[in-house]
Amino acid sequence: MTARPMYSIVAPVYNEEGNVPRLVSEVARVMESTNEPWELILVNDGSRDKSLDEMRAEAARNPRIKIVNFARNFGHQVAVTAGIDFATGRAVVLIDADLQDPPEVILEMIERWKAGYEVVYAVRSERKGESWFKRATAKLFYRVIYRITDVHIPLDTGDFRLMDERVAHVLRTMREHNRFIRGMTSWVGFRQTGVQYVREARTIGETKYPLRKMMRFAWDAVTGFSFFPLQVMIYVSLALGLLAVLAIPIIALLRISLGPDFFGGQATTIVVLLLIGSFQLFFLFVLGQYVARIYDETRGRPLYVVASTENVEPDKDSGRDQP
Ligand code: UDP
Ligand code: MG
Predict the structure, then answer these.
(1) Residue identifier of the C-alpha nearest atom 22 of ligand 1
(2) With pLDDT > 90 as the criterion, what percentage of the chain qualifies?
(3) CA angle 213-218-219, nearest 5°?
(4) Ligand 1: which residue has its CA nearest to atom 17?
(5) What's the 98 CA to ligand 2 centre distance in angstroms?
(6) Angle at Cα 165 formed by Cα 164 and Cα 170, nearest 5°?
(7) How much is the average pLDDT of 215-220?
(8) What ranges do the domains of the chain cover?
(9) Does residue 251 surpass a pLDDT of 90?
(10) In this structure, which topology does domain 7-208+301-316 adopt according to CATH?
């Protein structure tokens, strides 16, 4: 068809009937204003309503609209992944299909990208129309994640972001099954920056993230980017051990002053239980560290990502990934 697109806009769609035509016309309006070629990749994540029909109608009218149709619902993060896989642009933008992420912000992202940033994420300065509970849990979630993960995932950002094709290229090599895209883009590195925006309320349809899915999502983020839950064991083990050690002189003193029968003669049993608990947790912790390493290896992430080299000849025979 036409020249290779400059921008690939990726939108995951799950039961977004009514939102699809609005999304397409909004994105088209904003992207046409750039005067550069673009494409919109709609990933249908097993919708059960008329979303796919709406998508097909749009694609028939405009060759810039492309459809990747899943055989069933694979989940939001996987749908976004497929969109990145199919994207051909020099920059890839991830956006929700429900217009909670205003497409105008893409223009600001493009500006930053042209200024040399490889990742431009959108920071929600305000969230409209979401329940007090969702806002509070989201706020807590981002702060906990920030503290316990090894890569610093910016606070209050969703998947709404622009990434350079080089970042998209690295993401395509990361095939882990439990995916947390915003963490993965942070992990890749390069120059990253944020733009502020007001997150709109959803006008049509309802959230596809009930509490159960949100908890699953949070757990994917924690387990995908930190071994914190495994490390907690060593602290509990030490605490139990300390308790046992402190209990011994106290029991001895009580025995001397009150005679051997105080506490129904159970005191020694309690100390032994504390000690066994402490030992078991300690070795579970050790076991956990091995499991963590197996997990790290099986995930098969690239060892490193090269941004650039100086005075280095490209060498086809080495295993190096060419920057
Ligand atoms: N989505 C998806 N598959 C799913 C759930 C959601 O593709 O299993 C899409 C959905 O159509 C929307 C985006 O992911 O474009 C974000 O979902 P939603 O708006 O429900 O999440 P929220 O904004 O409430 O966090
Ligand atoms: Mg939404």
Answers:
(1) 207
(2) 66
(3) 95
(4) 208
(5) 6
(6) 105
(7) 88
(8) 7-208+301-316, 228-298
(9) no
(10) Spore Coat Polysaccharide Biosynthesis Protein SpsA; Chain A (3.90.550)
